[in-house]
């Protein structure tokens, strides 16, 4: 059972509840990827109850794990101001036989509806789709209405997200490939360089100088990201890894998602370093990538990044905190304080 939560910034986007096919087709851009064999819960709030807030996804469970799935997904909505939750099921768990009539997983839908209504939320018109692609079948659970889906890449929602520069991936696995590391020989070379550099620095006594130099290394790299210079030598990767391993620098970097003209450059840098840095040092850029994606509402990427950080360094404190927040559906605003710093000028890159 995997879960993904996306918190949409700026109060979310509007959806039409009167067009089920368009609503289902809006799910991929809302999540950031095209889900398969999934439960998707769309939390709605705002004036008229048509503004999408959190979007929560989980895998379709077997029959014996349905209650567990419901209890896992429900808390992810509790920290948000929603009045209505739309249930959309996609695909069918192969352990379930095809239904004699109507869409599959009706018992799961009933359990979800009961649990959601028990919190006080309205649960109108649950929906099912065979998959989310042009021409795929969809059906409603309550009245037998059915049809085929439009092209999900040409909906109003997809167009709005594309115009905002957000990418919708073909699957969660395709998104995960963004974090796949460099080849093993490159990581091995950098691991040896990091070990040697760490040994040298262990006898260095001027901590303030190390921090100042580390800030400069990160600032220069941010400028390179702005110029789209994405190539890094082994020594540059090692220098950045050593800089981010210093807590004052790492903690100051947490403020970068809150700086509009720098946030995406910083996130590109963290992503590049996740792919290029060996463990355990990889945990630092992975945790920063998680926090940046979390603040943008990209729950899927944030979850993949924090898993990457904890795999690289199971004892990483920041990664453990972010993992807990994600698993409990904590709103990004509630952890924004992690990005407060008095040292942002050390990383300051002027607006273009």
Q: Strands, helices and their partners?
A:
Elements: E1 3-7, H1 20-25, H2 27-31, E2 38-45, E3 51-59, H3 66-73, E4 84-90, H4 106-119, E5 127-129, E6 137-140, E7 146-148, H5 156-163, H6 172-176, H7 184-201, H8 207-226, H9 234-244, H10 247-253, H11 263-276, H12 283-295, H13 299-312, H14 317-327
| Rg, nearest Å | 22 Å
What's the count of strands?
7
Query: What is the distance, rounded to the nearest whole angstrom, between the alpha carbons of the first and last residues?
Result: 44 Å
| Beta-strand percent range | 5-15%
Order of helices and strands: EHHEEHEHEEEHHHHHHHHHH
Mean pLDDT: 88
Indicate the structural class. Answer: alpha+beta
Please describe what this structure looks like.
This protein has 352 residues and is of the alpha+beta class. Helix content is 44%, strand content 11%. It has a seven-stranded mixed beta sheet. A hairpin with a 5-residue loop joins strand 2 and strand 3. Helix 11 (263-276) packs antiparallel against helix 12 (283-295).
